[in-house]
Structures are given as structure tokens and as C-alpha cells.
Write a structure and sequence with these properties.
Radius of gyration: 13 Å
Distance between the termini: 12 Å
Helix content: 40-55%
Length: about 120
């Protein structure tokens, strides 16, 4: 399983238990996941110590972790959880305006996940 990790729930989230659903980042993230094509994907956040503990256990059980943005990546690094970092999928993130850059990052992510046996 691949776990995509954001920083905290958007106020627009339809369900605070499911990251990104209903937020402005949802469409961008769905596009990225489609391009990466993981065997199984889950969305979560990293804003509580309980969520970080769950991610640590998941990582130890062999799940691959992908951080979405600097805040999530810093939290995962601080918790000692190995992960791949993608830019945050927010439409306000200017990095997302450079499609060549994004395509390159998605390719690196897919290769990272293939190496872990989590990508088709």
C-alpha cells in the first residue's frame, strides 16, 4: 500500500478523517495518483502524534509513504519515518505551474515506489 500524507485537514474537507477529499488539492492529487498508478493508495494527514504513530507502524510493515509538501515531509523526517517527498498539490503552490518539473517528480516517485514493489 502507498500512503500519501498531507500536513493537516483543509477546512474544505468533507470528512476530516480522509485527507484532501473536498479540498481544492483533491483534483491535482487524483491526477498525480493516476499517473503514478500505485497498486493501492490511501490518503491521510500528519498533524497528530497518533497519525504519525500509525504511519510509523505502516512503514515498518512495508507500506510506502509519500509526503505531500514540506510540512508533512519535515514531520515524517522528525519522526524517523522514511518517505518520498512530492510538492504539495495545492493549486496555490507555484511549483505546480511547471508541468515539466511535476512530471519529473512524479516519475521519480513512481520509480521509488516500483523499487518497493508498490507500483504497477
Amino acid at each position: 500500500m502507498v500512503i500519501f500524507v498531507g500536513d493537516c485537514p483543509s477546512r474544505l474537507n468533507k470528512d476530516p478523517e480522509v485527507a484532501f477529499i473536498g479540498s481544492k488539492s483533491e483534483e491535482v492529487l487524483r491526477n498525480w495518483i493516476e499517473k503514478i498508478n500505485p497498486k493501492e493508495a490511501v490518503l491521510t494527514n500528519s498533524h497528530t502524534s497518533l497519525l504519525l504513530l500509525r504511519l510509523e507502524v505502516s512503514s515498518n510493515l512495508g507500506d510506502a509513504i509519500v509526503a505531500l509538501g514540506n510540512v508533512a515531509s519535515k514531520r515524517l523526517t522528525k519522526a524517523g519515518i522514511p518517505h518520498f517527498k512530492l510538492p504539495h498539490p495545492s493549486p496555490r503552490n507555484r511549483l505546480n505551474n511547471d508541468q515539466k518539473f511535476i512530471d519529473g517528480e512524479l516519475k521519480k516517485c513512481k520509480n521509488y515506489l516500483k523499487g518497493k514493489g508498490k507500483c504497477v
